[in-house]
Amino acid sequence: MKPVSIVGPSDAGKTTLVERLTELLADRGPVATVKHLRCPPDIDTAGTDTARHREAGATETYGIQGDGTWFATGTDRTLGDTLDDLAPDYEYVLVEGYSDTALPAIALGGREHAGEALLSASSADSVDLEAAVQAIEGVDPYETLTALIARAAESEQAEYAGAIATFTGRVRAKNGPDDARTESLEFERYDEIAAERVETIREELTDREGVFEVLVNHRTGVVEAGADVVYVVVLAGHRAEAFRAVEDTIDRVKDEVPLFKKEVTVEDDFWAHER
Amino acid sequence: MDVTWKLFATLGEAAGDTEVTVTVSDDATVAKALDSLFEKYPAVAEEARAENGSIYEHVRTLHEGEDVENPLDSDRGVAAGDELALFPPVSGG
Questions:
Q1: What is the domain range of residue A12?
Q2: pLDDT under 70: residue ranges of chain A
Q3: Together in a domain, A165 and A125
Q4: Predicted ipTM?
Q5: Residues 6+ apart with CB under 8 A from B28
Q6: Which pLDDT belongs to residue A147?
Q7: According to the model, what pLDDT value does residue A113 have?
């Protein structure tokens, strides 16, 4: 799933740009959008049944019609929660606003933003839409374990698969009670070569009898303690092949793929190979 | 002609950049490209090389994505715009 934010001041045409990009991207894959609201939504208005549910203490409420059309209201929802929920089913998520998050951004009207700059323009009308689409396609995918499992299960050979096995590598805060706490890890990647090496590992593992799909996703940049770093998902005929393939895949990723880890602890920071 | 060196982890930090350019002669080899890199960036040399001048065993050299063994003795030719890389042991996963 490729999430991108479209940021800019209120008259720069963010919504217009989201409309235009959605039209183009929808031909390539399912699109979802998120808008950062400045004021409460005009929905679930006072006196409606769902508003009464909320008043009574329901934290989240859904209104669903027979034909599947729906709305929901709730509290405490973050952009991260939303991207996680959308990742399994959508190829593109266009986020209007949220310039302070680390999403890659198309910036209008000189708007500053925290994430990587994909494209800048003075307004929606001066954006080269083809270039914008290419830039969006080039974004590092946002993956969740759920999304990878859903993708693995779409394999052409899924009808022969009786097993899905996964591995999640996460940032360990401490090795033991006296260990200095790790606050975060930072990963550098030799991009093209890393992609080639992962592809080789995937091909060689799926060559195995009974192993139908192997998916790998490794985050780059800063990853906080307790957060996930790497996912391996294997779809196989039976569990023995699935478990073995998961273990062999992560072992090979750690051995062969040019990724470099820098550890930041409360005391120090150092590159992994230095210790 | 110019060739690009991609530098990772401690080597990138030593150079102050993850991608640097060095100028070499048209008939240069990987060995020459490495010498030029070390000359231009002594801090990288210090990280990558032992006192006797040999590259630390754990440091890897890649030329256009392929591993080069004994890079300081390598007569593998480089072309203008080629990409080389120098890095310490990988530590992903």
A1: 2-137
A2: none
A3: no
A4: 0.91
A5: B1, B3, B36, B77, B78
A6: 93
A7: 85
Q: How many domains are contained in chain A? A: 2
Q: How far apart are CA A70 and CA A64, in angstroms?
A: 4
Contact B84, B63 (CB under 8 A): yes
With contacts defined as CB-CB under 8 Å, which chain A residues touch B87? Answer: 190, 258, 260
Which segments within chain B are labelled E, that is strand? Answer: 2-7, 19-23, 60-63, 66-67, 83-87
Query: Which percentage of chain A shows pLDDT scores above 90?
Result: 77
Chain B residues in contact with A230 (beta carbon < 8 A): 92-93
Rounded to whole angstroms, how far apart are CA atoms A3 and A25? Answer: 12
Domain final residue, candidates A85, A119, A137 = A137
Which residues numbered 138-177 in A keep a CB inside 8 Å of some CB on B? 169
**Residues A213, A93: one domain?**
no
Q: Which of A98, A94, A105 is nearest to A31 (CA)?
A: A94
Q: Is B9 helix (H, G, I), strand (E, B) or coil?
A: helix
* Integer Cα distance of A132 and A118 in angstroms: 8
Residues 224-243 on A with a CB inside 8 Å of B are 229-230
Task: Name the residue type at position B24.
Answer: V
Contact: B92, A190; criterion CB under 8 Å: no
Instruction: Tell me the whole-structure pTM to 2 decimals.
Output: 0.85
| Tokens describing residue B62 | 């890649």
